[in-house]
Amino acid sequence: MTAPAPQQPEEPIAQVALDDAAFSYDRLYSYRVPCPLRERLRAGIRVTVPFGRGNRLRIGMVPRCSGGPIEQPDGEKKVTLKPVQDILDDEPVLTDELMMMVHHLHDTTFCTWYDAVRAVLPGGLQIRLTEQYELAGIPQDAVLTETELALYRAAESADSPQKQREMLSGGNDPVKQKLLRSLAENGCLSVISDSRQRLSRVQTVTKYTPGDE
């Protein structure tokens, strides 16, 4: 008699509320938790996750974690979950009571999930995500506008690494930020994201790289 195959442990799933989500797509998104992050990821901790077709990194709050696969309705294609990228807090920044308040605010007021998080988050703990890019080469199938191509070539011919970094930083210019994101979505730039906390203190950031599992 053949012994039954050992059951694989259920993979933790994090429910994530995205910062800066519009009402049209504001909901809790499911992300799988890679092995290197599982011991530290808990409800009330902030993370960065890839979002959208371009996998742009976004900050999110984890209201809850669960185990096991996401059930799909009959006939629907199985969804492959993206992994949580980074953990931004050493300890939960929201207690169970504050998380209950987040749920209450979201359910009873006209606000997004992360608006509710921001409303109860202790002062000085706000985080913003700044993006820096590096050249990745222009793929053969990339379709760029003249402005995008000119920006790429200018950065490519920069006379120093510092100058190139400045050219590949969007700063506070929304037009340039849009150009850089388009280049990244076309595979011409690699995105390097860096989290900064308004309150100056040291944080441990655990990063997940595919292949660590």
Summarize the structure.
Helix content is 24%, strand content 24%.
What descriptors fit this protein?
6-stranded antiparallel sheet; GIY-YIG endonuclease; single chain; two-stranded antiparallel ribbon; alpha+beta; 213 residues
Name of the CATH homologous superfamily of the largest domain: PriA, 3(prime) DNA-binding domain
CA radius of gyration: 20 Å
Number of helices: 5
Spatially, the strands of the biggest sheet line up as 2-1-4-3-5-8
Query: How would you name the oligomeric state of the polypeptide chains in this document?
Result: single chain
Listing every helix as H and every strand as E from the N terminus to the C terminus, the arrangement reads: EEEEEHHEHHHEE
Structure classification: alpha+beta
* Low-confidence spans: 72-76, 197-210
> Any idea of the CATH topology of the largest domain?
GIY-YIG endonuclease
CATH architecture descriptor name of the largest domain: 3-Layer(aba) Sandwich
**What is the count of distinct domains?**
2
Largest sheet: 6 strands, antiparallel
> What is the end-to-end distance?
33 Å
Q: Beta-sheet strand percentage?
A: 15-25%
CATH level 1 name of the largest domain: Alpha Beta
In helices, the fraction of residues equals: 10-25%
Q: Return the average pLDDT rounded to an integer.
A: 80
Question: Number of DSSP strands?
Answer: 8
Shape: elongated
